[in-house]
């Protein structure tokens, strides 16, 4: 873990605008320092503005990505390449966002939904974006359907499942 300490006086405009928004105005103790680091790393917490980010990684070569963004697709510390994930309820809301984030970090994802139409629409959308996502219709409140879902995911991922989001 890299910890960088910056004196607030080094950046007067930054310190006045940031420290006033933060409940922590001194570096007097370790918990305050940790909280301030989190505050600096996630500025959207205080500004409520989205941080601009790269599009999720698709099936593009590393050289294509490097030429476009000037860096490797996913920092190895955050890479999920070669990992598999099962996300239940992945066609809307937070579930859908989780599916897209996992794919963005390189994971292969299988999702399920009770609504076949929604599932088809999402799978078509993800296919157009070249996301590696598969899916099946399942109501996870029914034991037989859960067992079938696990069998489908097992067949899709050759028996390997690294991440389960339910």
From TrEMBL:
The family this protein is said to belong to: Belongs to the short-chain dehydrogenases/reductases (SDR) family. SDR65C subfamily.
Pfam (any one): adh_short
Organism: Cucumis sativus
Molecular-function annotations in GO: oxidoreductase activity
UniProt keywords, alphabetically: NADP, Oxidoreductase
Entry protein name: Tropinone reductase
Transmembrane segments: none
